[in-house]
């Protein structure tokens, strides 16, 4: 069953979406396509509040669920760490508000484990916005760390370490220490 739109115009039509959800039902799906081709339609539904940097230029995108101040100024051309591009990252950060005394989060030492580094945006966000946090990321593939460092501006520090290991094995070893 092909649920992909035939054109940008179809992607933006109400009829397309009604048919899409009717045919898809409750089945999960993944969707790959050209962002540049569909971004005009996508951005109709995203309220731009911040302009993240991309290749040194500013582009309009949503700033996410939380408004936080960086703990240090952002140098020109450095990765933008105040923007969470993934909905699941936004949900994870919003979940921190459910902890006891969320108003003290910025002053509280947090130890966080991220399984799967990707481009490193989630660990960078936590590192920059929660100044007392220590972030450990576990990544099974060393080339992912290399790409995150070379292409996405990720860097390790005394408060942010990447462990090249299987995530489940790493968690099991942590549980064995306690």
From TrEMBL:
GO terms for biological process: methylation. Residues 50-60 have a biased composition (Basic residues). GO terms for molecular function: methyltransferase activity. Keywords: Acetylation, Methyltransferase, Transferase. The keyword Transferase applies. Residues 50-77 are annotated as: Disordered. Residues 61-77 have a biased composition (Polar residues). InterPro entries: Lys/N-term_MeTrsfase_sf, SAM-dependent_MTases_sf. It comes from the Eukaryota. Belongs to the methyltransferase superfamily. This is Methyltransferase-like protein 13.
């Amino acid at each position: 069953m092909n649920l992909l739109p035939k054109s940008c115009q179809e992607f933006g039509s109400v009829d397309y979406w009604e048919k899409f959800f009717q045919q898809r039902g409750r089945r999960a799906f993944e969707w790959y396509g050209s962002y540049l081709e569909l971004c005009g339609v996508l951005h109709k539904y995203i309220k731009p509040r911040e302009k993240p940097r991309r290749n040194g230029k500013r582009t309009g995108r949503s700033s996410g669920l939380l408004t936080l101040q960086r703990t240090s100024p952002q140098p020109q051309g450095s990765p933008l760490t105040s923007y969470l591009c993934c909905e699941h990252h936004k949900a994870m950060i919003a979940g921190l508000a459910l902890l006891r005394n969320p108003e003290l989060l910025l002053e509280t030492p947090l130890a966080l484990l991220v399984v799967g580094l990707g481009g490193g945006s989630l660990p960078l966000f936590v590192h920059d916005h929660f100044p007392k946090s220590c972030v450990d990321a576990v990544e099974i593939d060393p080339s992912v760390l290399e790409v995150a460092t070379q292409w996405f501006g990720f860097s390790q520090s005394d408060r942010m370490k990447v462990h090249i290991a299987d995530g489940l094995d790493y968690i099991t070893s942590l549980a064995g220490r306690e």
